[in-house]
Write a structure and sequence with these properties.
Oligomer: single chain
Radius of gyration: 16 Å
Number of domains: 1
Number of strands: 5
């Protein structure tokens, strides 16, 4: 209950403070490439239930929905990016619409990052470790400890650590570390 109240308070404050940035990002995406500015990605939520998560579209329309680490294995992953795609990914601006998912209750500010519907290996490992019982988050312990640069088993181990040790203080630590890492652009693969 306290976590949900914190989520709502931080999300409302975040939307108010970040509204100009959200509006500018929307316009940048909309004006720089054809297609919608928002992309609704099918993700795996709490108890492995599917939900639609919004992001600012950083990829060209028609790009397959695959995980970033798999996209980076393509011959030229940058070919999929929109003109502003790299910038909004490096600055994490593409993640701002996820505040809607927190308001709606599909996500939390802190939790394991929601898997894509087709990341069977990640979903299976999280289910084995009971991580699937957590609401996914905009940021999480695995995010501040390597993001997409760490292998899936290590990511799930970090998610498992969060499951076993979650407290309000750990959530606040993760939020602060996330802000620092975003400002430094640490562990950004694209």
């Amino acid at each position: 209950m306290l976590k949900r109240l914190l989520d709502l308070a931080l999300t409302i404050i975040g939307i108010i403070l970040l509204f100009p940035l959200i509006a500018i990002t929307y316009l940048l995406v909309k004006l720089s490439s054809p297609g919608p500015a928002l992309f609704w990605s099918q993700r795996v939520g709490c108890e492995n239930q599917l939900f639609l998560m919004p992001k600012f579209r950083s990829m060209r329309t028609g790009t397959p929905q695959i995980a970033t680490h798999l996209m980076n294995q393509q011959a030229n992953p940058d070919a999929f990016l929109t003109p502003v795609g790299s910038f909004i990914r490096k600055t994490s601006l593409d993640e701002l619409p996820q505040l809607w998912s927190v308001l709606k209750g599909d996500m939390s500010i802190v939790g394991p990052r929601p898997a894509l519907f087709n990341q069977d290996d990640l979903i299976q490992l999280r289910t084995q470790m009971n991580v699937h019982t957590l609401k996914p988050g905009i940021t999480g312990w695995a995010q501040v400890n390597g993001r997409d640069e760490i292998p899936i088993p290590q990511k799930v181990a970090l998610d498992g650590y969060y499951l076993q040790n979650q407290t309000l203080w750990l959530d606040l630590k993760i939020i602060i570390l996330t802000i620092i890492k975003v400002l430094r652009r640490d562990n950004i693969t694209h």
